[in-house]
Amino acid sequence: FHIAATLGTLGLIAFFTLLVLLTRSFVRTFVLSQRYADLYPFALGLFGVFAAFIFSGLTEWNFGDHETVTWLWLASGLQFALYKILQDKKISSSV
Predict the structure, then answer these.
(1) DSSP state of 64
(2) Rounded to whole angstroms, what are the CA distances from 88 to 58, 69, 83, 92, 95?
(3) CA distance 44 to 66
(4) Shortest CA distance to 43 belongs to which of 23, 27, 24?
């Protein structure tokens, strides 16, 4: 409700689009990491950070607190880097 009240309908749509895209990327990385035992725990931890952030955001305004949202952006950046590593491993193992 806070996002809808402060950003309006367009902001709410943009926010939910961001959440959907982040969720898809975290799930994609998690699923791809299941083939590699050395990187699976890392992907599971990053997915846990994301899930905990979203779950705790049900009762608090996490996106407005820069100390809290920094952890989400850090986890997102690490997740994108891990996905790139997994893609490189997948390509090199198939050759």
Answers:
(1) G
(2) 36, 29, 9, 6, 11
(3) 24
(4) 27
Structural contact between residues 46 and 26, judged by C-beta atoms closer than 8 angstroms: yes
pTM: 0.83
Each of the 95 residues of the chain gets a pLDDT tens digit; together they read 778 888 899 998 998 999 999 999 999 999 999 999 999 999 999 999 999 998 988 777 787 788 888 999 999 999 999 999 999 988 887 76
Using the structure block, give the residue that is written with the tokens 């608090």. 60
Residue with tokens 């996106």: 63
**Structure tokens, 19:** 């959440």
